[in-house]
Specification:
Distance between the termini: 6 Å
Largest sheet: 4 strands, mixed
Structural class: alpha+beta
Radius of gyration: 21 Å
Number of strands: 7
Amino acid sequence: EEGVELAMIQGGAVRAGADYPAGPFTMGSLFAEFAFDCTQAILELPGRIISESACNSRNTPKPAPNFLHFDSEVLFGNDGQISHVNQQPFEMNRLYTVAIYQFLVAGGNEIQPLLEYCEANLKVPDEECCPPVKNIVIGDLMTKLWRRVLNYDDLEAGTWFRSEAGMEMVIDRVFREIDTDGSGLLEPDELMAAFGPKLDGEHGSGMLANMIKSLDTNSAVSYTHLTLPTKRIV
């Protein structure tokens, strides 16, 4: 929703050092990996600064806590340079909207030329204005879970979601199917009855509570709430 094109975080921010078997990844594991808030600032950075900083961070003696990691849509070539972002060729002279650990661009760690560029050209937002990375990850996961249980991804593959009227028709139908008491609100017990088989068994009620909370409500879900997962997080 902030128009972020790529995300950057240094290796030292991921703390647990654990290998995970196939299967559920718990909230406890997420909090162990992101032991600190790792508040994320949204900045515009030139491609050249991003690429040179990535290269420099990866050419230091190991272990290298400043080693910059990127989201899965950032690809590197055999030469170690960024080649593509979001399936498009990477441009050195273009400005990219980046989510990055605020600590890095506020002078906490020295990754050059990133820090030098930020000090000379940008006003870095205060830490209090930047959301913690855990909140971002949880919000994204909850949006994807809502989309899965509501079958939104399958619907978008068809024709229904190609117009606003079609989307509203589908959401209205889904809402009425779940709202068995006709109250105009979806209570937790109605949501559990509808989604229980699609949630993770013994953890289903906890997952549903987090799903509801991700819509900025702690109890019943309204029609407006149900439209929020149609908007993908970028």
